[in-house]
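Quick illustration, no need to memorize.
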Amino acid sequence: WQTENGVLLPSLQSALPFLDLHGTPRLEFHQSVFDELREKLLERVSAIALEGKVEERYKKLEDLLEKSFSLVKMPSIQPVVMCVMKHLPKVPEKKLKLVMADKDLYKACAVEVKRQIWQDNQALFGDEVSPLLKQYILEKENILFSNDISVLHNFFSPSPKTRRQGEVVQKLTQMIGKNVKLYDMVLQFLRTLFLRTRNVHYCTLRAELLMSLHDLEISEICTVDPCHKFTWCLDACIREKFVDNKRARELQGFLDGVKKGQEQVLGDLSMILCDPFAINTLALSTIRHLQDLVGQDTLPRESPDLLLLLRMLSLGQGAWDMIDSQVFKEPKMEAELITKFLPMLMSFVVDDHTFNVDQKLPSEEKGPIPYPSTIPEAFTKFLQENRIACEIGLYYILHITKQRNKNAFLRLLPALVETFSDLAFSDIFLHLLTGNLTLLGDEFALEEFCTSLFDGFFLTACSRKENVHRHVLRLLLHLHHKVAPAKLESLQKALEPTKQSGEAVKELYNQLTEKLELRKPSPAEVTETPSMELPLPTVPTPASR
């Protein structure tokens, strides 16, 4: 039996006794021969998949699959069967069903085979994608609530290319491959989840996924996605954190080029523009444009570049409503935004310039001119009722905080208590604000500054919004040593978590309490201090001798 079933090589028969002398079992020898042959077979299968005419090569692989598939559950043969299936562009339906029905086989098969199963099985594909999407959102939230507060490294610091190297984007890209049907399914999942949760991070993923496929030059998908060139151009702007004139014209060309009957593409474009990274770029560019206009003595309505930025902001901010209502029309821009709100922002810039010039002038008897402390009622109203005005207003406040302009910050802060859809208490804004406030660290020692910031703004929402509670604690963890002790004590009481508070708030509060305990001098130190202040023994001076 051994002779009949062994390796039929005449020269081997005389060599095998050597293995016996070394105490090597025949099983071990046969196993190593088997492994070697299997490797050779796997190499051959991969080679067949690339040689000869297309029909012939796949015919060979199909015959091989037919012969070997019955052994698919044998661990030693399974890799060969899986390799054959991997190289077949279309595995027979019957075989796919058998793989799908068996959990272990499904787990073991290559992503190329899974794609063929997924494209006709949306629910199964959804089960695979869902944990990845949850992980993605969690990663974004972890960055926003990170304990490292810095003005240099914030949520928007990583470049688009770096972000696309993230685990989730890479996994999704691999799962989709060149399969347009799977790509469409992922986009459908993202739209549905965006509608259900209003979470803008799904819009980021929509753009990142398309650009990740673009990086791999997967033209099968990029050429059929009507947003590809628009996203590519916007991606370059996000990288520079500014929309320059050339790219602005390019983006305008895409928007103007939406033909009648193809308006549905606006839904996708609005989702790409709703990505926080896009909004951030557009808002920063808007603030920069407004400052330039002040220098040029030009009104906002006379700047086509500024109007285009507003048009894109408006499209991005209207994404949810557009996808929800399925009415694919660009939102109408309110004239007052351009004729009243933006000039008002420009007047704030002028106030700053005037105040700075006044400070430099030699003071006369009438004393220094105070900084304007009131804000026009219309400004507060715009922030409450107009989404785009609110977004631009918030970015202007971030801008003055970054410039360490305490006067302007304290002047405009009261307007943030009530904003459109509570945008001033959104995680992205608070993440950026806390980062920028580190530049005003020394101001935290002043009672007036702390009262305006904490009592006048943060604490108004802490009890009803847990995220605000978390951001304040993050800020204090970073700056507690700058705050006046009396104020710090009252803040510690005000920020104490309630029974309803989540674990994250309790954890942050405990960290803060520990830090404050470490700062308090211990009782031992307190009692020892007087001993250091004993009068020094008088040493007779040479004169008194």
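Residues 10-120 form one domain.
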